[in-house]
Amino acid sequence: MTILALQSVRTRRGARLLLLLFAALCAGCGPADARREVRLWHQMRPEDRAVLDARIAEFERQRPDLHVRALYKETEELRSGLVAAVLAQSGPEVVYGPSDVLGVYHAMGALADLSPWFNASEQAQFDPRSLIYMPAADPGDPPRLVFVGDRFGNHLGLVYNRQYITRPPTTTDELVELAQQNTIDADKDGSPKRYGLVWNYTEPFFVVPFLTGYGAWVFEESSGDDSAVHGIPALDTPAAVAAYQFVSDLRSKYRVLPRSADYEAAAELFRSGKAAMLIDGDWSWQGYVASDRIDAAVAPLPTVSATGLPMAPMVAPKGYSLTSFTSGQEADDGAALIEFLTSEETQAAFLADQKVLPSRLALREKAAESDDPLLTASIAQVERGRPMPTAIEIRAVWDSMRPAYQELMAGKLEPAAAAAAMQAEALRQCAALTTVSQPDATAPLVSLAGLVLLAAGLYWQRRAVADLWRDLRTNRLAYLFVLPSLAVILLTVLFPLAYNVVLSFTNMSLTNLRDWQVIGVANYGAMFTGEQASKFWNVLGLTIVWTVVNVVFHVTLGVLLAVMLNGPIRGKSIYRLLLIIPWAVPAYITALTWRGMFDFEFGAVNHLLAGVGLARVNWLGEAGPAFVACLVANIWLGFPFMMVIALGGLQGIPTELYEAARIDRASRWQQFRNITLPLLKPVLLPAITLGAVWTFNNLNVVWLVSNGGEPADKTHILVSYVYKAVFNLYKYGYGAALSMVIFLMLLAFSALFLNRTRATEAAY
Prior knowledge:
The chain is α/β, with parallel strands linked by helices. The chain has 30 helices and 11 strands.
């Protein structure tokens, strides 16, 4: 047998052994679980999860053939996960969450009909508002039951501290009077030590009771009911303006509100006894009532004195849906889990533990007959509430209200101007949300150009492809070893990039996830010349400022600290350890810490300013200070990286050069300028390039410190702007085009910067 034949046999044997080893590793060594699995994605609060886990354990005891894998997901994570599941037609069998997102889930085709498992007699046991129907795909078919609630409420109420208020207000006149009495500013410094009223007025959900109290609503009444598939915004009406005027007066005329209050700040003001009344949801009441720091009680929101109408919050069920990618036995198993988790026994367990209102009418009656004041107040408030719409436009309404509402509460807009801005933006976003772009004249050219580029690339690399094929036939074992790495690169880098390029020329959106079309260069045209072009250019300018300022401070502080640590300093190891901490701590923890430090009432920064006799700054409530807060947080995060890089470069510089410079009587600055900087160049310039790319794309800090671009969406950089464009309006094609522009800008900057600075050349 020839040497080549022996080598071929050995190669084949080695390949077989490698495949057998890989199969053994994949098979594992543990016993297989014979039970069928039911996957549940849920959004239950930590307080609820103990009850959920106990009920799931009971379900598995009753159904030993099933295993439930429950996975908690945040709202955005669950929504994006369902998008991927719809595209792949594979995902969880059951999802749990509030009903307001059902319009979106239904539009993307993610929900199945639960009617086969919940007949009419079973449905009659539930509050009708906790059973959500959606139209079938065929107009001739009856509506489908897509949601079964296990609780009903998710509503706002008035929480008051009985140490300050013995009887809750029943009208807004009484509310204002009590709030004024309990707003205490003894030293007259403009910063009260106690506020009469507080709520989270960064989110428009909390202003809805004021709207309903003045007779307004977020949608036109003919299309805004809780079963509507589509809604027409009605944010600029005389009743809405009157509501905004009253809310604005609470801040500017009656002066009973703090200057800045997000959800956590409002809750902490009340928990610490620095607020007499708080507007908050039923998900939080149990914690306030059980607190030993205050004597809290809950009452329904008052009636508006000017109209005689009650302040009616939005009410909504939370519950379960069966996903559309399940069928047969999987659907039966998922429905069995939903039946169990919405049963009377499970709802009774949540009622006893968390005091949430059940959706089953029999349990609701028992709760009403109890002498529990929390449940009594909750039921009274629910009866006044208005069902939250499930129309897909509700997300656009919230996003449209938020900027103008925040400027109203900051005193930057008058009520009439705020209402007009809300309505105009809501109409624009609703149109963008429901309109599917059609192919234009450039669509065939884009498709043809893609094919031509692909063919040209293959022709250009024809020799490399031929060489690869020949080499593959003679070195199969070697390629088999590198195959896993190539597969990972293909799946995580090349395929997503190519897919994103294709998507940037399509109309992929919420309503056509699986049947999108190539529409040409319309997405790029809308970005640069469309109605939102000015917004894009403004955000791009702010992003450039963000990147330049951050990189300058990162490099300056990093090099300065590196030079100091490279010198003869005592305790060098301790200083290195302390200075590396900002980089070692996870970025999201640091960002949230800085957000807390910039809080108007409790933040360490304002306490420091007050301690030296300076006025407090509304860091998170005004655009300029909020952007500065983001800069400070990101500078804190970034300088240790540059310090470590520079310190490594400094330790590679020969000491003889400095000795010679000192002999020539060169000053410290001359040594730094003529020796240190030139020899740091090969190390520092690539690090600057990398730092600029990271900073340009740093979503975490801006999103967490400014709470998603607040106030009024004026602290966005491009990457956060893309995030909102994609996930708030579900314009995946437009978002892909934006991301491609960012990629090309960074690619051009990196290539140009490295070439012009000759960063890859050696220093002599």
